[in-house]
């Protein structure tokens, strides 16, 4: 995956029959207080965006599947992968977005020195894949600084 803006934290992990990438991105276009673009979706953490991608590597999947994205336990997004789309080897999905939560939980976690936990789960009748990105930041006079980050699959899955 090639970035036009710097990646702060993330990586790519295989979980089940999926190859999943989760990235926190430093995007100067994503200012939280840009008065010239008041209609634009604003990020709760200045210049921080999020990118995820998955690719299915297994045999055709003949069931409805759903992807679910959570930030610090808050469900941010869910998408159904329709049964008529039938997941086949090479099927993929990508999403690039500003970070917006109902209670600004990502911004609050950074301000409190607590980790930011991002989990992408793909499930059918059971969990098919799950990857967890944990990043820890500290506030600085200019904004924030990454202290550490880890990405791992759910160890209960193959």
How would you summarize the topology of this molecule?
Blueprint: E1 7-15, E2 18-26, E3 48-56, E4 65-71, E5 74-81, E6 92-98, H1 105-112, E7 116-123, E8 127-140, E9 143-153
Antiparallel strand pairs: 1-2, 2-3, 3-6, 4-5, 4-7, 7-8, 8-9
Describe what you observe in this structure.
The protein is mainly beta and 158 residues long. It has a single domain (7-153), classed as Immunoglobulin-like, CATH 2.60.40. The chain contains one helix and nine strands. The strands form two sheets. The chain has a five-stranded antiparallel beta sheet with strand order 5-4-7-8-9. A hairpin with a 2-residue loop joins strand 8 and strand 9 (143-153). The longest helix has 8 residues, at 105-112. The chain is elongated, with a radius of gyration of 16 Å. The two termini are 24 Å apart. 28% of the residues are buried. The mean pLDDT is 83.
Defining traits:
single chain, 158 residues, mainly beta, Immunoglobulin-like, five-stranded antiparallel sheet, four-stranded antiparallel sheet, 1 helix, 9 strands, elongated
The ordered H/E elements are: EEEEEEHEEE
CATH architectural designation: Sandwich
What is the spatial order of strands in the main beta sheet? 5-4-7-8-9
Termini separation:
24 Å
Binned, the helix content reads under 10%
The CATH topology comes to Immunoglobulin-like
What's the β-strand tally? 9
Rounded to an integer in angstroms, the radius of gyration calculated over CA atoms is: 16 Å
Helical element count?
Answer: 1
Number of domains: 1
């Amino acid at each position: 995956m090639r970035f036009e803006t710097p990646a702060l934290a993330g990586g790519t992990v295989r979980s089940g029959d999926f190859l999943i990438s989760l990235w926190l991105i430093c995007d100067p276009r994503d200012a939280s207080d840009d008065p010239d673009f008041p209609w634009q979706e604003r990020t709760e953490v200045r210049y921080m965006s999020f990118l995820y991608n998955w690719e299915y590597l297994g045999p055709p999947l003949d069931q409805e599947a759903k992807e679910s994205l959570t930030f610090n336990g808050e469900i941010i997004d869910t998408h159904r992968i329709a049964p008529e789309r039938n997941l086949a080897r090479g099927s993929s999905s990508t999403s690039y977005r500003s970070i917006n939560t109902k209670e600004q939980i990502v911004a609050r976690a950074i301000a409190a020195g607590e980790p930011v936990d991002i989990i992408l789960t793909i499930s059918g009748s059971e969990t098919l894949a799950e990857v967890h990105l944990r990043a820890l930041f500290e506030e600085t006079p200019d904004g924030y600084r990454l202290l550490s980050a880890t990405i791992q699959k759910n160890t209960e899955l193959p």
